[in-house]
Amino acid sequence: MAALFEPLSLRSLLLPNRIMVSPMCQYSAVEGCATAWHHAHLLCLAGSGASLLCVEATAVTREGRITPGCLGLWDDTCEAALAPVVRLIRTTSPIRLAMQLAHAGRKGSSRPPWEGGRLLPPEEGGWVPEAPSSVAHAPGEAPPRELARDELPGLREAFAEAARRAARLDFDALEVHMAHGYLLHEFLSPVANRRRDDYGGDLAGRMRFPLEVFDAVRAAFPADRPVGVRVSATDWLDDEDSWTPAQTLELARQLQSRGCDWIDVSSGGISPRQKVAAGPGYQAPFAQALREATGMTTIAVGLITEPQQAEDIVASGQADMVALARGMLYDPRWPWHAAAVLGGVVPGPRQYWRGLPKAAAHIFGDISFSQR
């Protein structure tokens, strides 16, 4: 069997293949609440044949949203709005569900991408973003409000409370967002963290709050369900003091000792000055380096578009899984087509058995019958 279609166990979670639908912001919520768009979007991806569907970056506080349209899980209203989406997927698909818990930090209060993505001021419906330090993300933008030390326990508890809500909603796994220039990445990177207390300064200080958040989420979520972390392996800013692969490795080791179940390895996002050397699978070597150094389960992301490319990443040991985002939007049945190319098997509802790749026939029975 192709490596891409071998099962993978994460605590009590058994995944039938190594394909994950990456969390993708939709900017379509209302006051943090899921809408009809989330029903349509997530239900479409739930039928993809991937083993794990990760819901978009979900804000743990109102101020933690990237845009006013971002999904949230900070109160009972948000939780209640998401419940029917989960029920719909559970009753129509075998796919397992994860959620990415996040806080946008200084990149909060932004316009959606289709409106340019720039900072949205309070007088136009935005808010004052909060961050480790009062350092603006982009030139010409107002600086964020620096978080006081005595605010951090409450923010840490917000992550934990969102984890408890996700458990009540019956999510199978969680991913803590420490990448792409959002709050926890901002604490990690000296580009955004200029604090002079014990939550800044050296690497141990800059890792302190993200690790505390992970511990809080891990403690709040059922012990038999996995919790992973998405990281930015590098800031892509070689000409200044910034977050690097070597620091990412130390973070991974610290997370490993705390029971982290996977590292989802992305990069960049902390500064518009970044110079990204993008290309097919360009971030997979970062995942490979962490996997070889720690033995942790890793997920590779970034311009993975072809079935054989994904198979090579998993079969060669660069990563244990691949996560697709844009590729899955372009082709919501990408895992079906990959199975057809590689001779793999994907799960599918009985109503669609006749459309599954032929390799599934020996599991699902004769699916070549003619229609009456």
Plain-language structure description:
32% of the residues lie in helices and 14% in strands. Helix 3 runs parallel beside helix 5. Helix 2 links the parallel strand 4 (52-59) and strand 5. The model is unreliable at 361-372 (pLDDT under 50). The protein has one domain: TIM Barrel, CATH 3.20.20.70. The two termini are 34 Å apart. An eight-stranded parallel β-barrel has the order 3-4-5-8-9-10-11-12, surrounded by six helices. Strands 1-2 form a two-stranded antiparallel sheet. The protein has 372 residues and is α/β, with parallel strands linked by helices. It has helices at residues 36-46, 76-92, 152-168, 183-188, 203-220, 245-257, 284-294, 307-315, 326-330, 334-342, 361-364, and strands at residues 8-10, 13-15, 19-21, 52-59, 96-102, 130-131, 145-146, 173-178, 227-232, 263-266, 298-300, 321-324.
The average pLDDT score comes to: 94
Tell me the CATH superfamily.
Aldolase class I
Catalogue the unreliable spans: 361-372
Strand order of the largest sheet: 3-4-5-8-9-10-11-12
SSE ordering: EEEHEHEEEHEHHEHEHEHEHHH
Name the CATH class: Alpha Beta
Global shape: globular
* Tally of distinct domains: 1
Helix fraction by DSSP (H/I, runs of at least 4): 25-40%
Number of helices: 11
Which architecture per CATH?
Answer: Alpha-Beta Barrel
Strand-residue fraction?
A: 5-15%
Task: Compute the CA-based radius of gyration.
Answer: 20 Å
CATH topology (fold) name = TIM Barrel
Quaternary structure type: single chain
- What's the N-to-C terminus distance? 34 Å
Structural class: alpha/beta
Main beta sheet, described? 8 strands, parallel, barrel
